[in-house]
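User: My advisor, Dr. K., asked me to get a structural model of this assembly before our group meeting. I'm new to this, so sorry if the format is off. These are the inputs:
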Amino acid sequence: MKAAPFRYHAPRTLDEALSLLAGSPNARVLAGGQSLMPMLNMRVVAPDDLIDINEIQGLSYIRDESGEEGGEIAIGAMTRQRELEFSPLVAARLPLMAEAIRYVGHRQTRNRGTIGGSMCQLDPSAELPTVARAYDAVLVARSARGERRIAMAEFPAGYMTPSLEADEVLVEVRFAPWAIPHGTAFIEYARRHGDFAVVSAAAMLTLDAGGNIARLSLTLGGVGAAPLRLGEIERLLTGKKATVEAFATACARAGDIDALEDPHYPKWYRQRLAVALSKRALTAALKRASTG
Amino acid sequence: MSLAAEKAAPLRVVGTRARRVEDPALLAGRGRFVDDVRVEGVLHAAFLRSPHAHARIVSIDTSAARALPGIRAVFTARDILPALSRLRMPLGFPTKALPGNITPFVLCPEEVCYVGEALAMVVADSRHVAEDAVALIAVDYEDLPVLADCREALNPAAPKVRLEASDNVLTRFTIAYGDTAGVFARAAHVFSESLSTHRGGAHPIEGRGAVAQFDQTGALTIWSSTQMSHDLKFMLADMLDLAEDRIRVVAPDVGGGFGAKFVIYPEEIAVAAAARLTGRPVKWIEDRGEHFIASIQEREQYWDVEIAADAGGKILGLRGRMIHDQGAYTPQGINCPYNASTAVTGPYKVPAYSLDVFVAQTNKVPTIPVRGAGYPEAAFVIERMVDRIALELGIDRAEVRLRNLVPAAEMPYEKPLKIRAGVPVILDSGDYPACQKKVLDAIDYAGFRARQAAARREGRHIGLGFAHGVKGTGRGPFESGTVRVSPSGRISVYTGALAMGQGLHTALAQICAEQLGVGEGDIDVISGDTSYVSLGLGGFASRQTVTAGSSVHLAAIAVRDKAIKLGAQMLEAAEVDLELRDGSVFVKGTDRAVALSEVARVLRGVPGYALPPGMEAGLEASFHWRTEVLAYAHSFHACEVEVDVETGNVRILRYVALQDSGRLINPMIVEGQIHGGITHGIGNALFEFMGYDSEGQPYTATFADYLLPAAVEVPKFEILFHESPSPLNPLGVKGVGEGGTVPVAPTIMSAIDDALTPWGVRVTAAPISPVRLLELIEAGAHKA
Amino acid sequence: MDIRDIKVRVNGVEHACRVETRVNLADFLRHELGLTGTHVGCEHGVCGACTVLVDGHSVRACLMLAAQADGKKVVTVEGLTPEGGLSPLQQSFWDKHGLQCGYCTPGVLVSLTELLETNASPTEAEVREVLSGHLCRCTGYQNIVAAAMDAAGQLRAGKAGKAK
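Assistant: The format is fine. Below is the predicted structure of the whole assembly, which you can bring to the meeting.
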């Protein structure tokens, strides 16, 4: 399984990369390569130009740009998944990501794979896009024409298709951390450790002084082309007492989502998992919110 | 001549956990696998493979491919034929019992019959460019109807798998004995069931591959990652019309076989033909994508059976029908369905038996044995049916088994069945009830109900299951073994047996070292190279320790005896006062000795001088130890699982496995074989499903979709041994390469059923997916 | 043909090579440099047989282009093997029967080397977690785990010995 030939470019600056991208009608950007290289090897894709952005400085960072008034933690698109896994800042401020990253592939793939690459691949089963949706992340795209900010909710244009223009490169993903204390949980079902999630559930919640849910984010991965925010369930539970019964009742609605269907997993199975995993995620998040 | 009988002293090398002689080179990355073989001027081959499960080739245009720089040749069937005796491969196990025209083509000429079938070959400066050219070959296909489900093959109105085949059913046969009609008419209980196991691949981590090189005299050397080097030699002699002694087949280090390399493939012949036609050496290395669609698969069988039992759960008879998915061609024979249909009575007494077998062709890649070779399917059927008896009659599963197992006192036990050599199935030795008890005690079966109840109170669903497996091993008729001591003192073993990771060299070295008074590290073993031994059969059916081991054992004894005979002359001592130790012949209790190298030098001869009186030339001996029967190894496994009833996930909590393979040459190696065998079985039980849609299109053709068991999912195994030496060979050994796999699926399914008794779940198909398990749970919930 | 000149340090030896840009790192190491200890099992990044260290981290060599190794340090199984002997990890594999056909072994040795460099006392679960990125059809993983735990112990004892 050898890749078809391409013209290889390793630009040293982002401007150079953007210029190359704008000038090629059939180009692919090579980031970590953990998704693109198999596709190249299997000849599923055959770009004329392969633009390797690994040599560009300044695209890999985890910066705390948050403060008293809010703000975000900015993560450069070329930040390796390994960096996310071992970052004290991520562990402290983005605990949902810290938990989810351990499910992303294997150590050997996290050493090369990037957050930007995962976001642009938009595999329905991938963990990082689900986490990004849970946080209402903002993606920053750059082209020769300038910079554009895209809300994660708008980022998936279709199945494995980001809403990036042909001449745009994702340069940054911005996460607004939740106030401490809050509880988070990332629960996924995969056939084997490290496999893509069949379905995953990401829950984040804060409790008020009365023990009611003050804020709730509940997202499912693997059920649709894009990560699915369960807004209806969030509205149902916000302001309510957090109990097992309330969770069960609310999460039953996840059984109605129009889930993906494929030869391995029929729609009804993903619906079942959606119900079960969202309940488990909420339960786990609640426990952590309480213990703070 | 038996190892037990003739040595009063305890064994010195055999039976030890000797470190393997193979390891240092492999660990240092100095193994030489087929793609590591460097040949000057080699060209690289790639194949155009059919994207359709069934189609007529209307036209092939290779002109664009040929024009690509770096392309040396493009062959279609018509182009390659001049280098071949014929286009069609010979049948692997020749027999008149099957129709003609059933084997694959070297390159398909007219009608492609499975996705993956090769119809053209490109030879180029690099594999990259070869694949570029393959993409430029323009083929005009005319779709033909596809038969994807082997059960459909029995329908006379179904589309023809191959237009040349008059019947989609390749052959049908019945295995029967006893009065099944009478038994079933009178039986207190009859339970019927439909059971199935699904297609899976062998997937050694190293795929197939071959490098062919003709020298200037027209002699051919071919390196092939194969399990059968002599078979390849004979097939090449036939297909390329070459004298056999002009062909050398070398199996280099082989990165696993598991059946994938247990047959000679069209690609191996094509590579040699291409080398002949281009005048250059040609290399082809199978990539994983090709392995998924062009390497053999196995395990797809559909059984509709009935079991008759008395009120006490004693089996009175078993009968039914089995449909075996053979794929589009038959490269080897029907050994797999034959094994399954003659193995299904397993370790039990079954007074009456009748099975109608239909070997059904489909538009899928051909079937030959994968690790287990029909025995896993057979074990799945009988063990699930024995569990059924237990369930229906309210008798404990272990107790039902005890009431039906062939007891130790009745060994050897002859069944009214024959293996394909025509000799009866005779269980040669073993103590099935004692082994069952040993394992159930080890896993604390007695205390399990309490553990299960406690778990249920916590909302956890755990279950315990167990199953027997009996595997015929040591398949004959022979394997070659030569032991030679050279004048330099080096001791070498040559064999037609094949190494593929199972520690063959170490085992044979231990067997030889035992007789020659040296350590296993002092012996060089060369296997799989046809220039060293003229005859051999290869590695499959868990046979080589029995067959090659016995030949090497006997050869080593002959060499030892010869050394002592000449040593007696050279030392002027009586033979009975001599022993072999540390590479020399010693007078016992003294330090008077003559080195084996000296003995060898004398027997090498000097021109014009006489050899010592009564001595033949050479300190060497060869044997082809013969056998027609099989030595039956026994496995009994028990496991605890936990089922997540919301996701259908099955987690193995504990796994205890007992193996009885007679005497163990190297217990450490045997344990490793069992670990690997069980893991493959876990794949067959929970993970490995080679999926084809109704158009014969594979949809699990990468490692992301086809799941091999991995380290987090595979539990730590507790291995127990029982050693019932086989009376059938001088070593008392039985094979073990496949034994670990045979009972795994029913063991796990039995545990799943046990975990899910509140839902009345019964798993009757392997592998079981979480989706299917959830379906069964929900169906059970509705019934409740 | 799209060609690139690269300089890559492999097992401590600097190489200046001309590579076709579509050639992956595994093929480059094996065929350009003759370091055939690294094996190719799937070419889609799942089996782990091709795993090597790049700048100290385990990566799938089939998922990197040779061109991307420019300026990098690569260590293969040959680089993990001391002259004329075996490393403690390799020795443990030998003692504990941690390999059978040997095809997946070089990649496994690389990943375990990385693990033991950062975690001197891994648990069996941690070892299995690292091994989850490697497919083995022969061993059932058990003796690989045993070898890794044995090696960890040997290395700790060796360090303790040295510290004395």
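One thing worth pointing out at the meeting: The mean pLDDT of chain A is 96.

User: Perfect, thanks a lot.
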